[in-house]
TrEMBL record:
Has three domains with a flexible linker between the domains II and III and assumes an 'L' shape. Domain III is highly mobile and contacts RuvB. Residues 72-91, 107-126 form the Helix-hairpin-helix DNA-binding motif class domain. Belongs to the RuvA family. It comes from the Bacteria. InterPro entries: DNA_helicase_Holl-junc_RuvA_I, Hlx-hairpin-Hlx_DNA-bd_motif, NA-bd_OB-fold, RuvA, RuvA_2-like, RuvA_C. One of its GO terms (cellular component) is cytoplasm. The RuvA-RuvB-RuvC complex processes Holliday junction (HJ) DNA during genetic recombination and DNA repair, while the RuvA-RuvB complex plays an important role in the rescue of blocked DNA replication forks via replication fork reversal (RFR). RuvA specifically binds to HJ cruciform DNA, conferring on it an open structure. The RuvB hexamer acts as an ATP-dependent pump, pulling dsDNA into and through the RuvAB complex. HJ branch migration allows RuvC to scan DNA until it finds its consensus sequence, where it cleaves and resolves the cruciform DNA. Residues 64-141 are annotated as: Domain II. This is Holliday junction branch migration complex subunit RuvA. Its main location: cytoplasm. Coiled coil: none annotated. The gene is ruvA.
Length: 199
């Protein structure tokens, strides 16, 4: 129904962004809302997908067409819904994702929230040889400068919760996150994802 939405970026939260189009605010759930932080109050274009359920209509947003295509591929795997697909997309290392699928490394894939051993194996079966385009998914290069490092760290924790990581998983990396000073929430999330994948 919708291909993209273009308008003024009104707000950014740990779970979604809001784009103002002629006075109407569209709530769009994205893999990593803080990727958009530098574009607040500016005109942006967001690739979108409307997912309808019996009791809801949800707009999912993507940084570009390749990310949207990757979402479609992941969402077709049995055991992976839109939320799990977004959690996987939130990790910046798409090359690592492709390598894990191509090599059959299901242990790596189970590091994502909501992905168990069976689902990881299904990802390998369904997606091997189909994700070459995904290495081109745009990676954020935001470098927002701020002295409020504590506030950034708190936003990182909130974003992880929004992406579906459990309190146990977050507690495992929280101390390391709070020990760092990041220039932006995006930088903090990238660091947190690396810790979560390693542990």
């Amino acid at each position: 129904m919708y291909e993209f939405i273009e308008g003024i970026l009104y707000s950014v939260t740990p779970q979604y962004i809001v784009i103002n189009v002629n006075g109407i605010g569209y709530k769009i759930i994205t893999a990593n809302p803080f990727r958009w932080q530098d574009y607040l109050s500016q005109t942006v274009q967001c690739q979108v997908e409307l997912v309808t359920r019996e009791d809801s209509m949800t707009l999912y947003g993507f940084y570009d067409a390749n990310e949207k295509q990757l979402f479609h591929k992941l969402n077709k795997v049995s055991g992976i819904g839109p939320k799990s697909a977004l959690s996987i997309l939130a990790l910046d290392d798409h090359d690592g994702l492709i390598q894990a699928i191509e090599s059959g490394d299901s242990q790596y894939l189970t590091k994502f929230p909501g992905v168990g051993k069976k689902t990881a194996q299904q990802m390998v079966l369904d997606l091997r040889g189909q994700l070459d385009f995904a290495s081109e998914v745009a990676k954020s290069d935001t470098t927002q400068n701020t002295s409020a490092s504590d506030e950034i760290n708190e936003k990182v924790i909130e974003a992880l919760e929004g992406l579906g990581y459990s309190q146990r998983e977050i507690k495992r990396v929280e101390k390391a996150i709070k020990a760092e000073q990041f220039n932006s929430t995006q930088d903090g999330l990238s660091y947190a994802f690396k810790l979560l994948i390693k542990n």
